[in-house]
Amino acid sequence: MNEQTFLVLTVLAEETLHGYAIVRAVGELTEERVRLRVGTLYGVLDRLVASGLVEHDRDEVHQGRLRRYYRLTNEGARALHAEISRLESNARAAASRLRAWGFEGGPA
């Protein structure tokens, strides 16, 4: 799972969101390190919907514009949980190797 997919699933785990709100939430979550472009976001969402990890929740009109809301599915929550476990395992392995190398400190 790539980082963009992981982050979209993560923000949708908290609440149902429309596209622009997803972009903002990912920016906030990553302290603006990751800035999703709208085209990228909708490509990610299309793939997530097609794979059953996310689903369309509802459409609302806001100031004359259509907002499409998305929500995490149970399958999406399971996929996110599996990815979290994988990342934690990888981080533990990397930290162990750094400790063996003698590196114990934090960021330089």
In words, what does this structure look like?
This protein has 108 residues and is an alpha+beta fold. Helices cover 59% and strands 18% of the residues. It contains four helices and three strands; from the N terminus they run αβααββα. It has helices at 3-14, 19-29, 38-50, 74-101, and strands at 17-18, 54-62, 65-72. Strands 1-3-2 form a three-stranded antiparallel β-sheet. Strand 2 and strand 3 (65-72) form a beta hairpin. Helix 1 packs across helix 2 (19-29) and helix 1 packs across helix 4 (74-101). The longest helix is centred in the C-terminal third of the chain and has 28 residues, at 74-101. It starts with a helix and ends in a 7-residue tail after the last helix. The mean pLDDT is 94.
Helix fraction by DSSP (H/I, runs of at least 4): 55-70%
In this structure, how is the largest beta sheet organized? 3 strands, antiparallel
| Oligomeric composition of the shown chains | single chain
* Proportion of residues in extended strands: 15-25%
**How many strands appear in the DSSP assignment?**
3
Helical stretch count? 4
- Note the overall shape: elongated
Radius of gyration: 17 Å
- Could you report the average pLDDT, rounded to the nearest whole number? 94
Structural class: alpha+beta
Q: Report low-confidence residues grouped into runs of 5 or more.
A: none
Distance between the termini: 29 Å
Q: List the helices and strands in order.
A: HEHHEEH
Spatial strand arrangement across the major sheet: 1-3-2
